[in-house]
Each structure stands twice: as C-alpha cells, then as structure tokens.
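seq as requested:
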Amino acid sequence: MSQADVITHGQEAFLHAEAITDRFTRDLVHQGLVDLLGTSSLLHSDLPLHLDLLKYVRCLEAIYSDRARIAALASGSAPSPIGSGELRSRIEAAEASGGIRRGAEAFLHCESLPEGPVRELERFGLGVSAGLLAGDAPSTPPVDFAVHARMLECSFRKTRLVRLLAEGKEPSPFI
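struct tokens:
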C-alpha cells in the first residue's frame, strides 16, 4: 500500500477480532485480515485507499458467524440465500444511507464472478456487509464497497480453507 493510503482503527480491529469467542469464527476473521494484506496488488486502481479495519472485521464476523451456512456455500452444496435482486436492493439501501460508496461497481464485480461457491459466498458476504454498514451510516468516509468486494473475494477464493474452518475442522498448514 502506498504512503497516501489511510488505515484507521487497526488496533481496535485486532482487539475486536481477539474478543470473538468462537475459535473458528475468530480464525476465519484472522484469515480475512491476512488476506487483506495480500490484496494491495488488486487495489492499485483505488489508490489512495481509506480502509476502516474495524468495520471490515465487524463485517467478517457477521458473515462468518453463520458457520453452517458458510460451510454449505463454500462446499457448493447450497446457493446463497441472497439472490441477485435482493443483493442489489441491499447495496442500494446501504449507499442511500451513506454507509457505502461505489455500490454498483461492487454489485457488478460480484455478478461477473463465474457461477460457483466463490460467487455464492460473495453474494452472501456483500449482502450481510451492506446490511451492517447501512446500520452504521452515515459513515465518514463511507466504505468503498468496490474495494470491500475485492477484499472479500480474496478470502472466499480459498473455499477449501473457509469450508474446513466453518465446519470446525483443523485445516492442514499446507492449504
């Protein structure tokens, strides 16, 4: 990340993640933070970035708290309970509330993913995040939802790891 980037609430985000009582949900949130560090190459067009890590961690926690649903989505055995139309509505509501910006880009990014577990996880994750962030609004500055979508996708691409942790299993260190 460039020197012009701003990361806020980093310490609070890590303290919040450590306070998550369910070990496997906490591990998934930690993995999401690790994946965030690897996304800077995907975000080059979005510089300078403004990332509120506490909001990102709260979104990850809300997404991963339904471990059974996450495991089913990651295994490909269930579609997202949030369809394309509902996702668009949630994103539009979050944008209208001032909680997010670039919602249409996030929606298009999600819908452009190939059919399968990653897109189903992305739909679910963006829908949950949009609801949470709409409740936080107005946010200064609003969360860049296009960046949020790409950060979530980086984590969701590791569907096997996500599925194992969501199922409460110890993943191999070689995944």
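The mean pLDDT is 86.
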